[in-house]
Design goal:
Keywords: Signal. This protein is α+β, with helices and mostly antiparallel strands. Helix content is 37%, strand content 22%. It contains 14 helices and 15 strands. Strand 12 and strand 13 form a beta hairpin. It binds 2-acetamido-2-deoxy-beta-D-glucopyranose (NAG) (2 copies).
């Protein structure tokens, strides 16, 4: 009987060591500046942090996590844009602060999906996703490629792209984008705005104006005159309570939509990195919102029950 008890104690001890951070046998972690300085692939972010004076500020914080774009990530910005950004210190500072949180010294072990941190000063969400099937942890849909670099007051998480701060919630963004005006109007007339805003981790596949233009005008009129059918069609484009950035997508993945029948959609990988949602081609990917993510698609998807009702009217969809 003694043996199992000893085992449990040992396992318990190991777990508490992982969750409380560095065991005391570790060497003290270097400060942020030295940690970045000894890694050649972070020389550009180090330079930007110095340029803005943020480096001194971050080193002095009691706890911090820096999401640090690698040199490869920063080099993917066209050079003239990069030089403009570097010369515009207020804009650069604001972008860099979006890559910092002081909520918690965040390390990637054992974190739940859809955890959201607030960025430094500007209080915008930095969303973490764990996509187990592709063995990936992402921040705002950007891969964390260089995980958990310990520094004296927290962690650096190396990321392979620059994160873009969200410009409002899902409804705000759909209302403001030129190519989703049609969808914005329909969401409004179906009375779905508040439900979409209320879900704090939502994925919306947003048909563009061109997608709606492909529908027979009589089909659109039918939907506008039948609020229940319209609601079903709109919610068929929504995945509730989880955010799916393209980095987490995989061929033949299916997921349940928010319509009444919980219909499934399937992702298909096509040629040249194209992705389809059922037959609809995904257009703009990974438009981050404060409460989720939007991808635009080039066709309107119609769930079976509504399809049948429309065909009963002697109409054809697409
Ligand atoms: C959804 O988001 C909220 C707020 O960010 C978070 O607290 C919650 O845990 C998330 N829900 C799920 C199911 O992950
Ligand atoms: C993200 O980065 C990790 C570490 O480099 C890599 O193993 C993983 O495959 C990447 N994920 C995707 C989806 O590219």
């Amino acid at each position: 009987m003694l043996f199992p008890v000893v085992l449990i104690v040992l396992v318990g001890g190991a777990v508490s060591q992982i969750t409380t951070g560095a065991p005391h046998t570790h060497k003290p972690a270097p400060d942020l500046e030295s940690a970045l300085g000894r890694r050649a692939h972070f020389s550009m972010i180090l330079d930007l942090l110095r340029t803005t004076g943020l480096l001194t500020q971050l080193k002095a914080l009691p706890q911090v996590t820096l999401f640090a774009p690698t040199n490869a990530a920063l080099s993917s910005i066209p050079n003239d844009e990069y030089q403009d950004l570097k010369a515009d210190v207020p804009r650069l500072t604001s972008l860099l602060k979006y890559h910092v949180t002081t909520d918690q010294a965040f390390h990637t072990t054992g974190r739940a999906n859809d955890v959201v941190f607030n960025s430094l000063d500007n209080n915008l969400p930095i969303r973490i996703n764990i996509y187990k099937i592709v063995h990936t942890i992402a921040a705002e849909g950007v891969n964390i490629t260089d995980k958990d670099i310990r520094v004296a007051n927290g962690f650096v998480q190396g990321i392979d792209n620059v994160m873009q701060p969200p410009n409002g919630d899902v409804v705000d963004i759909i209302n403001n984008m030129d190519n989703t005006k049609m969808l914005a109007g329909l969401i409004n007339s179906a009375g779905l705005e508040s439900a979409i805003r209320a879900d704090l981790n939502i994925t919306v596949f947003a048909p563009t104006n061109d997608a709606f233009a492909k529908l027979d005008p009589q089909v659109l009129t039918y939907l506008q005159n039948n609020p229940k059918a319209l609601t079903e069609v709109l919610l068929y484009h929504v995945v509730k309570k989880t955010t799916l950035y393209s980095i987490g997508m995989r061929h033949a993945m299916t997921f349940q939509t928010a319509d009444k029948h919980h219909d499934n959609l399937m992702l298909i990988e096509g040629n040249n990195d194209d992705i389809y949602l059922n037959h609809a081609k995904v257009d703009d990917r990974d438009i981050s919102a404060t409460n989720g993510v939007i991808h635009t698609i080039e066709d309107v998807l119609v769930p079976t029950t509504v399809l049948v009702a429309i065909e009963d009217q002697g109409l054809l969809v697409g």
